[in-house]
Amino acid sequence: MKKAILSVWLFLVATALAYPQLVTFKLTGGLAWINGDDYNRGVVGENKYIRGMAETTSGAFKELNKGMNFAGEIIVHMNSHLGIGFGGGYYRLSNESTVRSQGVLSDIPFDSTSTYKPSLSAIPLFVNFHYMTRLVSRLGFDIYAGPLFQVVQFSFENPSTTTVLSTSQTLTYTASVTTLGALAGFGLNFEIFPGIALTAEGCYRYGKVSDLKGNWAVIGTSESGPFNKSSAEYYLWVYDDTAGGTYTRIGFFDINGPAGDSVSSMRKADINLSGFTATAGLRFYF
To answer: What is the CATH number of the domain that holds 59?
Structure first.
């Protein structure tokens, strides 16, 4: 079945390239949303964990769910309604959030500040099958779908300070991975000049990254002196922490994952890239 689908797809691509009726270049920009899955669940859990362990807190860590999106596509028309599009783009989601907490640990008051700086960037490459039709003289409608290949990089920075042992440190993590997925969308095109149209589009993208292995490092100082640790084989993990309650948490650990009497249900985390994009731009017809 897969071979048959691939054969039909290659035939359509070859036909489009051999007998083009028209070529369209599309350039768009806008917003992209992702589900986030384990990462976002872990962020919510971290906020609950801090509030459960501290006496007072201010601020909250933010979920990773929205960012800028840019894309370009060349559409080779087979006829007035059908076309094959070849394109790529770039989207990036990032934010910064800080939580400050105060409490008592082993009868000793503490004051802690922690900042999350996550960033997820992706280069999507895609081949779309388009169906296009004219609604009125200057207004057109386009629906499309196709496979998606993405090069994804996830990075994380966490500077923090605490009065516990006078500790100040910065944790960093970077992992890169490729993944397959799919997308489907639709667009409205309004011709403003001959050969140039405004376009507004909505698209749903499906995909996720798993088994993230990357470079981890932590550098800082404490009462016992400076410290510097690093590894090229750390993973993003999600787990339940039952210390003082039950909290879903995330963290960076080696292949063995987190350990401790309060740790359960641990597994390597997924980041779900599925979500909508809303874009606008220009189409040029040649």
So the answer is: 2.40.160.20
